Protein backbone atom coordinates (compact mmCIF):
# COMPACT_ATOMS: atom_id res chain seq x y z
CA UNK A 1 0.00 0.00 0.00
CA UNK A 2 1.27 3.46 -0.83
CA UNK A 3 0.86 6.91 0.73
CA UNK A 4 -2.50 7.50 2.46
CA UNK A 5 -4.35 4.49 1.05
CA UNK A 6 -6.41 2.07 3.15
CA UNK A 7 -7.39 -1.39 1.88
CA UNK A 8 -10.57 -2.74 3.48
CA UNK A 9 -12.81 -5.80 3.25
CA UNK A 10 -16.53 -5.13 3.47
CA UNK A 11 -18.43 -6.67 6.38
CA UNK A 12 -20.92 -8.64 4.35
CA UNK A 13 -22.37 -9.16 0.93
CA UNK A 14 -24.71 -6.49 -0.34
CA UNK A 15 -27.89 -8.43 -0.81
CA UNK A 16 -31.36 -8.71 0.61
CA UNK A 17 -31.75 -7.18 4.07
CA UNK A 18 -34.39 -7.31 6.78
CA UNK A 19 -35.69 -4.28 8.63
CA UNK A 20 -35.97 -4.31 12.41
CA UNK A 21 -39.68 -5.04 11.94
CA UNK A 22 -38.90 -8.14 9.86
CA UNK A 23 -39.74 -6.74 6.42
CA UNK A 24 -37.56 -8.12 3.61
CA UNK A 25 -35.84 -5.35 1.61
CA UNK A 26 -34.56 -6.59 -1.79
CA UNK A 27 -31.02 -5.72 -2.90
CA UNK A 28 -32.42 -3.77 -5.84
CA UNK A 29 -34.39 -1.38 -3.60
CA UNK A 30 -33.19 2.22 -3.64
CA UNK A 31 -32.22 3.28 -0.12
CA UNK A 32 -31.20 6.63 1.22
CA UNK A 33 -27.50 7.44 1.16
CA UNK A 34 -25.97 5.18 3.79
CA UNK A 35 -22.41 4.70 5.03
CA UNK A 36 -20.94 1.20 5.37
CA UNK A 37 -18.55 -0.50 7.81
CA UNK A 38 -15.49 -2.46 6.70
CA UNK A 39 -12.44 -4.09 8.30
CA UNK A 40 -8.98 -2.67 7.51
CA UNK A 41 -6.64 -5.19 5.87
CA UNK A 42 -3.63 -3.00 4.97
CA UNK A 43 -2.53 0.64 5.20
CA UNK A 44 -0.01 2.89 3.46
CA UNK A 45 3.01 4.41 5.22
CA UNK A 46 1.39 7.87 5.59
CA UNK A 47 -1.81 6.70 7.31
CA UNK A 48 -1.84 8.14 10.84
CA UNK A 49 -5.02 7.20 12.71
CA UNK A 50 -5.92 3.77 11.32
CA UNK A 51 -4.31 0.37 11.91
CA UNK A 52 -4.92 -3.05 10.34
CA UNK A 53 -7.76 -4.80 12.16
CA UNK A 54 -9.73 -1.58 12.83
CA UNK A 55 -13.27 -1.15 11.52
CA UNK A 56 -13.91 1.99 9.49
CA UNK A 57 -17.04 3.80 8.34
CA UNK A 58 -16.98 5.06 4.75
CA UNK A 59 -19.31 6.25 1.99
CA UNK A 60 -19.78 3.41 -0.54
CA UNK A 61 -20.07 5.94 -3.39
CA UNK A 62 -16.46 7.13 -2.77
CA UNK A 63 -14.82 3.74 -3.20
CA UNK A 64 -12.66 1.91 -5.70
CA UNK A 65 -13.01 -1.85 -5.83
CA UNK A 66 -9.97 -4.03 -6.46
CA UNK A 67 -9.63 -7.80 -6.74
CA UNK A 68 -6.60 -9.40 -5.07
CA UNK A 69 -6.08 -13.16 -5.39
CA UNK A 70 -9.75 -13.70 -6.17
CA UNK A 71 -11.08 -11.65 -3.22
CA UNK A 72 -12.83 -8.31 -3.59
CA UNK A 73 -11.51 -5.37 -1.54
CA UNK A 74 -12.24 -1.65 -1.38
CA UNK A 75 -9.45 0.91 -1.73
CA UNK A 76 -9.94 4.21 0.12
CA UNK A 77 -7.97 7.32 0.98
CA UNK A 78 -7.60 8.03 4.69
CA UNK A 79 -9.53 11.28 4.24
CA UNK A 80 -12.54 9.31 2.89
CA UNK A 81 -12.95 7.48 6.22
CA UNK A 82 -15.67 9.00 8.41
CA UNK A 83 -15.07 7.04 11.65
CA UNK A 84 -12.71 4.43 13.12
CA UNK A 85 -13.85 1.79 15.61
CA UNK A 86 -10.89 0.30 17.45
CA UNK A 87 -10.45 -1.48 20.78
CA UNK A 88 -7.28 0.50 21.51
CA UNK A 89 -9.40 3.67 21.59
CA UNK A 90 -11.98 2.09 23.89
CA UNK A 91 -9.41 1.58 26.69
CA UNK A 92 -9.81 5.21 27.83
CA UNK A 93 -12.33 5.84 30.60
CA UNK A 94 -15.67 7.04 29.21
CA UNK A 95 -14.61 6.58 25.59
CA UNK A 96 -16.97 5.17 22.98
CA UNK A 97 -14.16 3.60 20.93
CA UNK A 98 -14.90 5.74 17.88
CA UNK A 99 -12.89 8.50 16.24
CA UNK A 100 -15.22 10.92 14.50
UniProtKB/TrEMBL annotation:
Locate the compositionally biased regions of type Basic and acidic residues: 1-19
Pfam families, alphabetized: Cpn10 (PF00166)
Q: Does the keyword Isomerase apply?
A: no
| Annotated keywords | Chaperone
Q: Which SMART domains match?
A: Cpn10
**Which portions of the sequence form the region Disordered?**
1-21
For this chain, the family text in UniProt reads: Belongs to the GroES chaperonin family.
Full protein name: Co-chaperone GroES
